[in-house]
Amino acid sequence: MIAALIRSLGRPLMRLRYRVEAEGLEALPPPDGRGVLFLASHPTLVDPFILVALLHRSWEPTLVAGRDHTVHGPLRWLARAFGVRALPDPASHGAGCREALAGELADLAGRLRAGHRLLLFPGGRLSRQKTEDLSDNSMLEAVLRQAPGTRVVVVRMRGLWGSRFSAASGQRPRLGVNLLKGAGYLLANGLFFMPRRKVRLVFEEVTDLAVAEGRTALNRDLEARLNADPGPRTFVPYLFWQGHGPRVLPEPPRPRVAGNPRTVPAQVRDAVRRHLQGVTGHHEIQDGLTLVGDLGLDTLAHRELELWLERAYGYPCSDPASLQTVGDVMLAATGAAVSLRQGELKAVPHAWFHAPANLPIELPEGGTIPEVFLRQAKRGPGRMAVADQTSGVRTYRDVITAILVLKPVFEQLEGDHVGLMLPATGGAGILYLALLFAGKTPVLVNWTSGSRSLSQGLDLVGVKHVITVSTLLNRLDAQGVDLSAIRERLWLLDVEGKRIPLAAKLSAALRARFDWSALTSVRPPETAAVLFTSGSESQPKAVPLTHGNILANIRDVTQILRFRKDDRMMGCLPPFHAFGLTTTTILPLVLGIPVVYHPNPTEGRMLARIISAYHATLLVGTPTFLAGIARQAEDRHLESLRWVISGAEKCPDALYATLARRWPGVTVLEGYGITECSPVVSVNREEDPRNGTIGKPLPSVEWAIVDLDTGRRVPPGEPGMLLVRGPSIFGGYLNPSAASPFQTFEGKSWYHTGDLVREEDGVLVFAGRLKRFVKLGGEMVSLPAIEEALAQRFMGEEDAEPLLAVEATAEEINPDLVLFTVSGIPREEANAAIRAAGLSPLHHIRDVRRVEQIPTLGTGKTDYQALKALLAEPVA
After folding, report:
1. Please, are residues 463 and 455 in contact by the beta-carbon 8 Å criterion?
2. In terms of CB atoms within 10 Å, which of 31, 273, 553, 588 comes out highest?
């Protein structure tokens, strides 16, 4: 009855806006007992209503719809009312979707053989251009092959392209919102005086479709018929005083994925290749191969690919027309794909930008991180604290609420140490604090370190549970990351969180507003975090950092860098990285700086867009990640930045040059740090930044530069081993077998950094890691110096990923220097570049090995352990 009422009212209501002319409908032979399949173009969301209202009296067709008409609120309700046959979608049918779809198509073919009439949009989705693209359609052939003798009627819809209900604007139309706006326009026009949009429907019965010639020929035949004489994009005024005539508008650009697939991180490229190999059966997956023509993907496979991208990388890519090649898929995994559903970033609340300008910000007193955080939160519980594109913006009160919800849950977890495996998100900082308030020591888990190292590290500190989320596991699984060794320890927050009673959440929200006593009385564990060294040179070691270590480091940083109340930070470093834990997770929460996160630091384009949307003023990262952002950012994206803080590895001259040229208002502050030092040791000052240096040591850090041979302090300008001591230095490794990193010098105990530096005018200059020097001909030869000379010659500003690395063979006496390169640099050219840089012949390359990519760690550093393993393998 509802469907009949809608049909009865549909035609008169549509006449208030549309003037529909049907050509060829009356000339169609009447129903004769054979099945009839109406195949229509699909420019707007109102197409089904116009066609059903026009056809229901004589033909009574059953509408067959894809997900455009069955997943959104108003459309879902209307689809049920009209008895729409919704085709199965992988989002709801999962792995069994192809089987379910085959069954549905067989049923539709049976209905046609029984004489039923069906109305179907063969494109499967809303048109993104004025013409239909059926290249990946396999549904039509499957139905017609099973229902021979079916009458086929092609319906060309003209005049609707450019309507508010079309995708001509480049955005997916919102049916409910536009219907409400349309009702308002009708009232403003006195119901009957609204300008009409002329709609022309051309019906043509076809008897010679190329069904027997296969899917490709059939789709091309039908495309040609549906796309005959396509109309332009037109705008028809909504108010009678604006005129009644249509106005032709320019066509939207064809969707495309911008960027160079070679810039996509190697692990993402490999994951896409493996996935497409499994889906298509093709072994050679090259960037330029087309998904439809070369790999044979159909509409369903496209949809499954979109879902895989969204599940693995978090990006909806709802426009298949933008995914044409393998390279497009690789770029889509970094957020570069055109997507009507993705559209713009989530709106940022106005309160995010409300803060007094240019006023200094102060760190509260306190002996533990929870204590300092609570004092900061009490200064303004309604202030913005953290944000990301998944959970939105959260205030300090929201953070307190979440901690009160999670604290009793975490208290029940077995053991004093609990693992935390999350990327950079607003939730990571909240969970870290919740563990401390629950009396647990957070152990930051680095999923890039390998399954064996993960398991050994967790066993070392007695971790029984590792808190993580399904979205991260899906992404890591898609990238081929092996977590099998710790799978049984994983504690999924998105699963376990559903078991928390609503009453507990309401109680926490109430207490967050009126009573924080459950938090103020907490005595957190002495160790504030356990991290593992990066393992770029050796096996990871467990590093315990106390509250005193981390807070001393933060207090030093806030003394020398003038943070302001109107600062906003961009965070992308994973919290398992000491640089990320201290500077982008803990520091903003205890200092009161709003921080917005994005979980993947390699997605430069998305990070640049987020910086722009949230008006971030501070960007913290490693040079590899920073270079990716600068390379993919438009000039407008980084205009709000005042500082770029670089650490973890040497910042290359090319990155300095790019930032200075494109964003002259940005100050680059390069620093130096070590996990064991919480981690910052030195950093450039805002008032006197010196490119190519690591700045001055922090106020509380004592330091000495010692000659390797004599054990005495070196004179200024001479390189030597850096020794440090102070309240931010840790107390020793948890690994029983690890050698002590401390040595006695001048009667005091110092931490031996393993790094060579020199002092120039009170500023430190990094000279390289001792482990990255080799002794040749009685001289110490720096491998980083060779890499720098080669990078200046063979790498450009556009290269975000490392394209070369130098390592030495294992011989203790006169080892060979080996160049690993992605681009296949000839040895003679490499040595010419080394000579041109002023390095001696001892620095010359002896061998060149070409590799698919330079291995990197999750922090963006080159993985020299992996290169050493490659050196041990025989040369093919």
Report:
1. no
2. 553
**Residue of 63, 41, 56, 75 whose CA lies nearest to 10:** 56
Domains of the chain: 2-248 (3.40.1130), 261-332 (1.10.1200.10), 350-683 (3.40.50.12780), 696-769 (2.30.38.10), 777-872 (3.30.300.30)
**577: nearest Cα among 366, 343, 860, 816:** 860
Q: Are 424 and 571 in contact (CB under 8 A)?
A: yes
* Mean pLDDT computed over 739-764: 92
The dihedrals phi and psi of 507, each to the nearest 5 degrees, come to -65, -40
pLDDT tens-digit map of 302-329: 778 887 887 777 666 656 667 888 888 8
**Which residues is 618 bridged to in the sheet?**
569, 643
Confidence (pLDDT) at 763: 94
Task: Give Cα separations from 532 to 26, 36, 303, 609, 823 (angstroms).
Answer: 76, 67, 40, 32, 33
- pLDDT of 567-615, one tens digit each? 999 999 999 989 999 999 999 999 999 999 998 888 888 899 999 999 9
Nearest by Cα to 385 from 174, 596, 185 = 596
Q: Which residue has the tokens 């590792």?
A: 466
Residue 255 is classified by DSSP as P
Q: What is the pLDDT of residue 695?
A: 94
Kindly give, in sequence order, each residue whose CB lies less than 8 Å from that of residue 66, ignoring residues fewer than 6 positions away. 86, 87, 89, 121, 124, 125
Q: How would DSSP label each residue in 808-839? A: E-S-SSSPPEEEEESS---HHHHHHHHHHTT-
Q: Is 414 exposed, middle or buried (0-12, 13-18, 19+ CB in 10 A)?
A: exposed
Bridge pairing between strands 197-206 and 441-444: unpaired
Q: Which backbone phi and psi does 728 adopt, to 5 degrees? A: -90, 0
Phi/psi at 273 (nearest 5 deg)?
-60, -45
Higher-pLDDT residue of 322, 758: 758
Q: Which segments within 595-647 are labelled E, that is strand?
A: 595-597, 618-621, 643-646
Q: Average pLDDT in the 357-363 region?
A: 91
pLDDT score recorded for residue 337: 61
Cβ proximity of 167 and 254 under 8 Å? no
Q: What is the dihedral of CA 145, 149, 151, 154, to 10 degrees?
A: 30
Could you say which DSSP state residue 460 is in? H
Q: What is the DSSP letter of 685?
A: B
**Closest-CA residue to 336 (of 319, 311, 360):** 319
Round the average pLDDT of the chain to a whole number and report it.
85
C-alpha angle 855/856/857, rounded to 5°? 135
